[in-house]
Write a structure and sequence with these properties.
Helices cover about 30% and strands about 25% of the residues. It has about 375 residues and is an alpha/beta fold. Strands 3, 5, 6, 10, 11, 18 and 19 form a 7-stranded mixed beta sheet that branches. It has a 6-stranded parallel beta sheet with strand order 14-13-12-15-16-17, sandwiched between helices. A hairpin with a 4-residue loop joins strand 1 and strand 2. It is globular. The two termini are about 10 Å apart. The model has no long low-confidence stretch (mean pLDDT about 95). The structure holds zinc ion (ZN) (2 copies).
């Protein structure tokens, strides 16, 4: 079968023939790939800065944002049947008995670094026609989400981030006890940094949870992304028009920052204006760059005097996937046009080269495999 693979040893990316996987254990499920999202991680792997093949291979099949359909199940599989739609998680646990996190199915908090990730680290990904996985790593998707469910994986970034926010902020009276469940952000101000798919999906989650939400990004409005975020009820602000102090003045107390921009300079500039009892979630992974100037004393002073918290978050657990599938259903009812417009292009697998190596365009581009 066909697969898009990266050969790190040869610094090549290509469409290859890859052996079709078969079920070899009772708890496994065989899945037909329907759609695979392409993101910055895939594009970075294609510059050979990271991404490693499984043992015994000189290539890694790419792709970690998948929507698939079950075609066959092992004898011990109870949760899925052929025809079901599924989205797989990405990270698989390390083998060490002493890794408390992996032994409790919380490999997103792996202590050893010896986890693998499908399509990223030592396990083949989903940019191919079929794949096999254990049922515990699969999440069922209702059929009405068929045309948007490829967005589940990028949405899990915000889902896990927000789950951390609720836990960390439990240490103080952050949410009014009278606030209805599911609306815990009511009366709070959130700023999203960046207007890529992770940022826009993050803004949607924050709005659904009741936050007054601002998206702070580079391009001057109006532009397609500013129009999209304003159509769902966020306020778009360009950092070329308003500096972080002006942003803070406009917003009032910044209770939450959700960073989805991936560069340190603007992120730390906004950390400086985080509000009282504020929480800042970092999700971006910047490429290494030379040291830069930072208002470190002000930031440190604020962290202490304003009871602030900075949290980094990577990967997602089962709850984050289930939350993403649930919330995608809410988005589809509330903003069907805006949600669908996040997927700016659907392409055949043989167009992989432009998507992975060409200039980044649109919001979320998807490879369709059927
Ligand atoms: Zn991705
Ligand atoms: Zn581990």
């Amino acid at each position: 079968m066909r697969a898009v693979a990266v050969f790190p040893g040869k610094c090549e990316v290509g469409l290859i023939g890859h052996e079709t996987p078969e079920i070899t254990a009772a708890n496994q499920v065989k899945i037909r790939s329907l759609e695979v999202g392409v993101c910055g991680t895939d594009r970075e792997i294609c510059t050979f800065v990271y991404g490693s093949p499984p043992d015994g291979f000189d290539y890694l099949v790419l792709g970690h944002e998948s929507l698939g359909q079950v075609v066959e199940v092992g004898s011990g599989v109870s949760r899925f049947k052929p025809g079901d739609l599924v989205v797989p998680s990405v990270r698989r646990p390390c083998p060490h008995a002493y890794c408390l996190a992996c032994r409790e199915d919380k490999q997103d908090f792996c202590y050893t670094g010896d986890f693998t990730e499908r399509g990223i680290k030592m396990t083949h990904g989903f940019m191919t026609e079929f794949y096999v996985d254990e049922q515990k790593y699969l999440n069922g998707v209702p059929s009405e989400l068929r045309d948007v469910a490829v967005l589940v994986e990028p949405l899990t970034v915000a889902e896990k981030g927000l789950a951390q926010v609720w836990r960390v902020q439990k240490r103080l009276p952050w949410v009014d006890p009278k606030t209805p469940a599911g609306h815990l952000g009511a009366g709070k101000n959130a700023v999203v940094l960046g207007a890529g798919p992770v940022g826009i999906l993050g803004a949607m989650v924050l709005i659904v949870n009741g936050f007054k939400t601002y998206v702070y990004s580079r391009s001057k409005a109006p532009n397609p992304k500013s129009e999209l975020v304003e159509s769902v009820g966020a306020k778009y602000i360009s950092c070329e028009v308003e500096n972080p102090d002006q942003l803070a003045e406009r917003v009032g107390n910044i209770d939450l920052v959700y960073e989805a921009v991936g560069t340190a300079k603007i992120s730390y500039a906004v950390l400086r204006v985080l509000g009282l009892n504020g929480i800042y979630i970092f999700t971006g992974i910047p490429a290494p760059k030379p040291p830069m100037d930072l208002e470190a004393d002000t930031i440190m002073r604020n962290l202490v005097l304003k009871n602030q918290v900075v949290v980094g978050t990577v990967n997602a657990d089962r709850e984050a996937f289930e939350g993403a599938i649930h919330d995608l259903g809410i988005f589809l009812k509330r903003w069907p046009t805006a949600l669908r417009s996040l997927i700016t292009g659907r392409y055949k697998i043989d167009q992989y080269r432009d998507l992975l190596l060409g200039k980044a365009t649109g919001i979320k581009n998807v490879i369709v495999l059927t």
